[in-house]
Amino acid sequence: MSLDAIDAVNWSAIPNPTWHRCDDPERVAHALRLLTVSTTANETGDAAALLAGSGFICGHAAMVFPAAYAATPILLNLVEHGQRPRIKDAALGLLSNALNYFPTAGYNRVDTPYGTDVPLCCAIARYIRGRRSALLAQDFTGPPELSAGIRADSAAVSSGER
């Protein structure tokens, strides 16, 4: 399922804000494939490190790239349906980082089905809020404001307020 979702994205149409080959969105697709099929701790770690150091996020610079928007639903699928706990943990960590990092100037907005020119962080957060039950089941510990929002939204839905 996740491999089909990865293949369905036109990664070459996503901008690369740094123009470095290592930040090419196609590398994000490659790393997502590696993460999806990883069977050992080393394979999972290598795939997560590739995502954390290339066109998804840049950990040492605390940057999030436009490809993170396209990768978010794939990572959420891995959280919900991943075959191994370490894959789920890696996906959760990457999603948390994407919310905590800063977009590159001039590349901080994306087009979504619900609007154009949406702030990147808001677009990613909307995907995450849409999958709140899966994240709560995995004990998502993203940014406190988002974690609290997910828990509050879930409580409101459970009580019939939403």
Contiguous uncertain segments of 5+ residues: none
Could you say which overall geometry the principal axes of the C-alpha atoms support?
Answer: globular
The main pleated sheet reads as: 3 strands, mixed
How many H/I helices?
8
Number of domains: 1
Radius of gyration: 15 Å
Helix content: 55-70%
Strand proportion: 5-15%
Secondary-structure element order, N to C: HHHEEHHEEEHHH
Query: Strand order of the main beta sheet, please?
Result: 1-2-3
Q: What are its keywords?
A:
162 residues; globular
Written account of the structure:
This protein is mainly α and about 160 residues long. It is built from 8 helices and 5 strands. The chain has a 3-stranded mixed beta sheet, with helices on one face. Strands 4-5 form a two-stranded antiparallel sheet. Helix 3 packs parallel to helix 5. The longest helix has 16 residues, at about 85-100. It is globular, with a radius of gyration of 15 Å.
Present the secondary structure layout.
Elements (H helix, E strand, L loop, with lengths): L1 H7 L16 H13 L3 H12 L4 E2 L4 E2 L2 H15 L3 H16 L1 E2 L5 E4 L2 E5 H11 L1 H6 L6 H15 L4
Q: In a few lines, what is going on in this structure?
A:
The chain has 162 residues and is mainly α. The chain contains 8 helices and 5 strands, in the order H-H-H-E-E-H-H-E-E-E-H-H-H. The longest helix has 16 residues, at 85-100.
